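Teaching assistant here, posting this on the class forum so everyone can see the example we discussed in section. The complex has three components, and the goal was to see what a joint structure prediction looks like when all of them are supplied at once.
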Amino acid sequence: MISGYLITILIIIVIYAMLAHSLNIITGHAGQISLGHAAFFGIGAYTSAMLYAEAGFPFWLSVPLAAVVAGIVGALLGIPCLRVRDDFLAITTMGINFVVEAIFLYIPFFGGAMGIGGINLPKWFGREMTKPEYFILILVVFFLLLLMDRRLGRSWIGLAWASIREDEQAAGAMGVDVVRFKVLAFILGSAIAGLAGGFYAHFLTFIMPQNFGFGQSIVVLSMVVFGGIGTRWGPIVGAIILGILPEVSRPIMEYRILIYGVLLLAMMRFQPGGLLGSESILSKVFRRTVYRLSSSE
Amino acid sequence: MVRSNEFGVRRKRLRTQHFELRTKFMLWQQLANGIAIGSVYALISLGLTMVYGILRILHVAHAGIYALGAYVGLLSFRLVGNFWLSLIVGMAGAAVAGYIVERFLYMPLLHLPRIAPLIVSIGLFTAMEEAFRIVAGPHTLAYNARVGLGDLSIGSFHLTETQILILFVTFAVLIFLWAFLTKTRTGLAMRACAQDPETTSSFGVNVSRIIAINFLIGSAMAGAAGVLIGVYDNQVWPTMGSIPAYKALAIVVLGGLGNIPGTVLASIVVGLAETFFIGVLAIPFPRDAVAFVAMILVLMFKPYGLLGKA
Amino acid sequence: MKCRGFLFSIFVFSILSLTALAYGQDIPVGFFAPITGPAAADGASAKNAVELGLKEVNDAGGISGKKINLIIYDDRMNPQEAVAIANKLIEKDKVIGVVSGSYSAPTRVTAPIFQKAGIPMVAGYAVHPDVTWDPREKKPNDFCFRNGFLGEIEGAAAAQFAVKNLKAKKVSLIFMDNDFGRAISSGFADRAEKLGAKVLTKQMYKFPGEKDFRPYLTRIKEGNPDLIFAAGYYNEAASIVRQAKELGVTSKIMGEEGFDSPKFLEIAGPAAEGVVIATNLDRDDPRPLVQNFLKNYRKAYNEDADMVGASSYDAFMILVNAIKKAGTDPKAIQKALLETKDYNGLTGKISRFVQGEVVKPVQIQVVKGGKFHRLGVVDNPEIITPPTKQ
């Protein structure tokens, strides 16, 4: 029997991996600086929580709707955002994070400072899901998302994104509707973040506004940067490593936030591509090892 | 009957008059409160806007330097016991820190897209806050500096000693900055760099040195702000930079990125707006959101900020 | 080479088994508090106090010869960590009871987890109602107990004292925007108005983070209330009190248990003199239980004890007492807790638990000579008895 503690950790890691992956869609694919991603995480969590706890929606409806709502908000916020310059965008996304958090905190409809409680795990076959079953569920969903992402990456949408990422102006000159594809990335990224938020709410059983503030955005950003912005597996690897490390080591747990900060700092300063980026030490070692193995044949 | 009525009416008028006088003092008090806090915002935001003007980087870690100034100032105050000395040491410590950040973190990254130095800055800021917590402890520390000036009291109105200090230091710093930027050659070079670094360097100006001076001055001002807030609130704590980090950004955008008079104006506006929202209009609005809301409102009509230009 | 590895593993294995055996003789009790993070000062206070209690119990021979093994976790004021901690305590450490030395958010998330697992938990000072009441199922979490006061009750008791004893007719409120602040201020306002006082202003400030209360205080000063009821933790409390003095505010200031900390006295300095608070720790309580605790805490940690520490100590002792009575079966411990009657606690005498909430008098203390002293007690049953929810 797998211990409940281990399952808890695994579930959190999958949720973070989903979240990191969704941020990667926005920053990596569309090349936009989003410093307030936790806002969409929160919108998804709150949507699912309120639909479930206040309106009695079942989990199987509330969580997909959470993704939809987050995606819609992402579109609404994305459109004006994208007309704005780099630096303004950074501040604006930060501002969005604060405004969303403030809305959850101050408007009693959303539970205010007390947050929302009583959000349970889904029911199926007439009983409540166990944690291991929930883990399998979100893992399956995550794999499906990755599969979809892969197909998208190979489609014309993926090509358009790649061109925008490489050189926005050139892409525009070639006739790519830059704004449209950026908005698409925004919608997709925020929807998946919302989905992760829905899963998070039902797992934690209780959410409060502070879970979705700027600090949370930094945590997710660290995972993406550490793993490698724009790489396919980078953010996921980042989420796994940064998720497991604190649990495994007590001292790391204590200094976790410090480590996140230093990681962001050091990574960007010395290895901006992240762990899985093309310039990183890891990939250099990997390539060298592969070369040595193949040449020793 | 008529007499007591007259008397009653007269008494009521006196009471309303007294209330109005009270309210007038309250307004003056709130004005003082607003300008004091606005001045501190100005000290922090100026450094931020100067860095942006010259490097086009959003120097989020600036708030970490602000907190560092407070801690260094407090430490020296604990050792020496003199406010002015602690202020100078705080400013110096902050200036040095700013220089280190500029030289070792930002300069090597100038060739990368601007997201890189921004993330480095955010990472540094996060790390600094934690470092403060680990080194100095998570508790708030008292910064009980007194200059012996005493308060300025007129009836109900109290311009407290710390408010006087803030106004004085800010005023002095602003005068210095104005004189530096308009009257000295280095200042002129700095303004030129902000406009066009390449052309300026082709004129023989050592752009690298100018950038360094820019950071030194900006960080010193942030350090001063840190010390002043530490004394004003009698509190120095590890996350004291969190709110100024975002608020200063909003203020800088509101005033016009890179625009120095705009930043000063925006700081005072935000300081007054916060105070009046809470103290006069009594709208239950989160104080820290005022800066962002003001920024969004102004951007709708003036997309480059109050005094900014394209 | 291979032999060395093998021998080493035998060595490690035997050490581990011996330790396991040793621990097997102990009584595992869980404890979590915000030892690091934004609330680290309170976490440290809670941990210190409970460790003091632990030493007292174990030095006296433990419970029926077995020592208590206190398993301490740091929740960093983060509900997510608290969930992981709760699962760890139940599955890995197999505790028979838990003490929460933490705030509402971490405690409230873990309450349903302990409830489901049937492990009794006693919360020291977390105030959120959901700790003892499940809002979804609309029934009490009967494995969860709270030593501290509900916000509404503490506020009502404060109002009672303010209006009846301090003779306040006009009051102004200033409170933080979290659940505790809102609960305690509404409890105060309701009771004050019921007793005939007038509430002039109610102002809410952002928590955490607000340091400059001058705009709020200036507005309060305008109305010239007899008493200002201020809710906050020790930082905000100190700021409010100091800045009020600076601005020449003459109204009496009354606070709550958040003020109850030596840090408040330290940061506020002379401005704290005369401030009244509603809390649960009575420094002038003649009972040796209280005086010994205050003395031992000071001796061990070189600091004065505060509400957080005292409440956590009490929560621990309440649990220990139940274990003493009922043994190590969690269900039996829960039954013993439910049947608590007239328990002589550090932070007051608990008549009984009502749906996990204490029926206990509220202490009113005043700052005199730079220290907290007794000013009065509020023990009207109608005020201090928690409501029975359906």
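For the discussion questions: Residues 4-295 of chain A form a domain with the ABC transporter involved in vitamin B12 uptake, BtuC fold (CATH 1.10.3470). Chain A is about 75% helix and 5% strand. Think about how each of these relates to the inputs above.
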